[in-house]
Amino acid sequence: MAPLLLQLAVLGAALVAAALVLISIVAFITASKMPALHQHEEEKFFLNAKGQKETLPSIWDSPTKQLSVVVPSYNEEKRLPVMMDEALGYLEKRQKYGSDKVRVITLVKNRGKGGAIRMGIFSSRGEKILMADADGATKFPDVEKLEKGLKDLQPWPNQMAIACGSRAHLEKESIAQRSYFRTLLMYGFHFLVWFLCVKGIRDTQCGFKLFTREAASRTFSSLHIERWAFDVELLYIAQFFKIPVAEIAVNWTEIEGSKLVPFWSWLQMGKDLLFIRLRYLTGAWRLEQTGKMN
């Protein structure tokens, strides 16, 4: 009986190893190069208050504003106006802005959430750049908490630092409201993030993140993932470049209308997490200290 169990254990280990090798080969072969930074002609302009075309700036230009806010939006007719009213109301109390306070970049094709944010980041004018979700789930005044979080990280190496909004402090409350299945999926995802990609950050997926201009250009220039798991790769890149990251508790409320389909979206993100790790591990994707990507 014992020899049979030993043989089964060896066979099982061999099958697991073979599967891991096969998955690594698939991850390497299917690894795409850096998503094209190419802008279609229509994406190089925005319409000003007079309805005239103006050329968008570049993140590699000198900043002309204190803060830029990037809000990805796809079929958000119901949720976006509420979020924008709150954000603009708050920002106008802090400082009066001119007629160019809102710029809309219309993308020719769907680049995914990460791709849309990257296009917005690359056209930003601010010394600091905030990414925020269109649903308004995070109260906009909490940007002050992120600003304090950035300040507490000083001195910033090469002027780079990131403050991530976090819902980790709400975990017990959310578990009480979720089904056992969704709670299991959440814990499984958090484990994969910790085990494969990012250590020390409990909530990688909150869509409320503040970057210094230099940190935004360094991380988003190296980003491959353009869909839901892009946050994880972004923080993986930040940790590789030793960019200091603060995790800051923010107020957050569940807003109806999410585009995520619980099971399939989590499954897709789980696959993305595994492939992120394997593609960097096998050299299909490489990061260099210069901040450029092979």
UniProtKB/TrEMBL annotation:
Name of a matching Pfam family: Glycos_transf_2
GO (cellular component) term, any one: endoplasmic reticulum membrane
This protein's UniProt keywords = Endoplasmic reticulum, Glycosyltransferase, Membrane, Signal-anchor, Transferase, Transmembrane, Transmembrane helix
- Chief location bin: endoplasmic reticulum
Matches recorded under SUPFAM superfamilies: Nucleotide-diphospho-sugar transferases
Q: Its domain of life? A: Eukaryota
Pathway membership: Protein modification; protein glycosylation
Q: How does it sit in the membrane?
A: Single-pass membrane protein
**A GO term (biological process) for this protein?**
protein N-linked glycosylation
Which Gene3D superfamilies does this chain map to? Spore Coat Polysaccharide Biosynthesis Protein SpsA, Chain A
Q: Which PANTHER family match?
A: DOLICHYL-PHOSPHATE BETA-GLUCOSYLTRANSFERASE (PTHR10859:SF91), GLYCOSYL TRANSFERASE (PTHR10859)
According to UniProt, the name of this protein is Dolichyl-phosphate beta-glucosyltransferase
Q: Which organism is it from?
A: Callithrix jacchus (White-tufted-ear marmoset)
Lineage per the UniProt record:
Eukaryota, Metazoa, Chordata, Craniata, Vertebrata
